[in-house]
User: Fold this.
Amino acid sequence: MSQNPPDLRPDLAPKATLDGTRRPGQPTIGMVSLGCPKALVDSERILTRLRAEGYGVSPDYSGADAVIVNTCGFLDSAKAESLEAIGEALDENGRVIVTGCLGAEPDYITGAHPKVLAVTGPHQYEQVLDAVHAAVPPDPDPFVDLLPARSVSLTPRHFSYLKISEGCNHKCKFCIIPDMRGRLQSRPAHAVVREAERLVEAGVKELLVISQDTSAYGVDIKHAEERGHRAHITDLARDLGSLGAWTRLHYVYPYPHVRELIPLIAEELVLPYLDIPFQHAHTDTLRRMARPAAAERTLDRIAEWRSICPEITLRSTFIVGYPGETEEEFQTLLDWMDEAQLDRVGCFQYENVEGARSNALPDHVATEVKQERWDRFMEKAQAISAAKLAAKVGQRMDVIVDEVDAEAATCRTKADAPEIDGNLFVDEGFEDLRPGDIVTVEVDEAGEYDLWGRLVN
Assistant:
């Protein structure tokens, strides 16, 4: 049992979970998956293709004939983490194939690690497979391996990420995702729904909808309708909500049409949870970011959403210390937080990222000032979180069980996404619970980020 730390990075996916079953002589691949949930989905797709070709999947370096490292390249700190992971894989295994966002800069990788076998960019599945074939030729057992493969999941069996699009049409100055992953490319709605149906049929209890811009889903394909499903986020939410699993929406930009989702939330078709990347609140800061400079309208929208669905949980991320951010602009953000009263909040200190247009902006903020503002921001967010959680004491709510150990069952409420939000712990009478169970609890204690409760018979 572990409590949710207050500075957990909100861009990280849960750690990959692998089993090590293999037949004698089976070629086996290891996978290190870094970065966001979208990258985790890419890793799952690569391993699913390899499993269909007869490869085994190893949970450790020693059992793998080669290792794929799926990298993150969003921040300089993430690039450093990726290089470190590549180096570790080379030291422990020696045969390493690199893919993912940092793979868009192959010279950067080979300059640090010239012994890697191959480098491919993000969602270049065929190139990854070609590199694996060259390094570890397939040797399938035709009676066992060459059968339709069940999708490989790197998350616990009871929840799964559902990626609905690639890329992004925004041109935020601090972000290089469009350069690495391209413009918005939405999946056909019928394909998304069919994947969700298969996941639910396999026992998934929670679908976590992800993309770079979930609100814009279908814009690039003119909200095409095919096989009875329309590529629009409202229609997709309704379709997914009909499958009986919890449906959680991530990365929802606050466009006006997001209002159409709120009645679906009120009807409990999708979870009362929206993950919205506001980034800042001061008009001038947002303009320098090349974000829609409409913080006042955002507050009006939040008030409207809560009037329709009072129990809605709002999560967001913010950047402090952006180039040119004055003390007045930062104070506006703190004041906005007081008024918005967001339920779940993550925060980054601004970093230069190679290739980002924000690097060229004047008046970069000193490191010690960024740290001081981050501390003040998190103190504010922590106080808001503690007050909101304290108000839940005495309430009854459904929770999903993530893990059970000797001390307690670690659960999540509908207001909590895996890894990035808080937990609810049941430390009495939990012995018969299993991961994936959905049970009713009564909250009897609250902390700054987590809750404790007892089972209701």
Summary: The chain has three domains: 28-135, 159-390, 396-455. The radius of gyration is 22 Å.
